[in-house]
Design a protein that fits this description.
This protein has three helices and four strands. By secondary structure, the chain is an alpha+beta fold.
Length: about 100
């Protein structure tokens, strides 16, 4: 089964509230064997809307990434991000031969 990536593009509008999200989101993602491979590092926008923060996490499957998002723990974390950020988040399956 191919691995999957969470790809998030975020503009934080309330740093204090978003900090509460980040504190809870990390453990929720780890509980589903998710691992951050990019988080808030350097970037260059080549097309589309620019957001100041970009996060990528890898999961063992698309289903595991989606289950993490729907979990009670992640939804609790997400309650702090709502109203504190503008976000786009997608979970996408890697091609079979991609290695991370």
């Amino acid at each position: 089964m191919p691995k999957a990536l969470w790809i998030a593009h975020v503009e934080v509008t309330d740093a204090e509230a978003y900090g509460r999200y980040a504190k809870l989101a990390g453990p929720a993602i780890a509980a589903f064997n998710g691992k951050f491979i990019a988080r808030g590092g350097r970037y260059e926008t080549l097309e589309g809307a620019d957001r100041a923060r970009h996060v990528v996490a890898v999961f063992s499957s698309l289903e595991e990434g989606a289950a993490c998002y729907r979990s009670d723990a992640y939804q609790e974390a997400l309650s702090h991000a709502r109203g504190a950020s503008v976000r786009d988040l997608v979970v996408v399956e890697l091609v079979d031969d991609a290695e991370l």
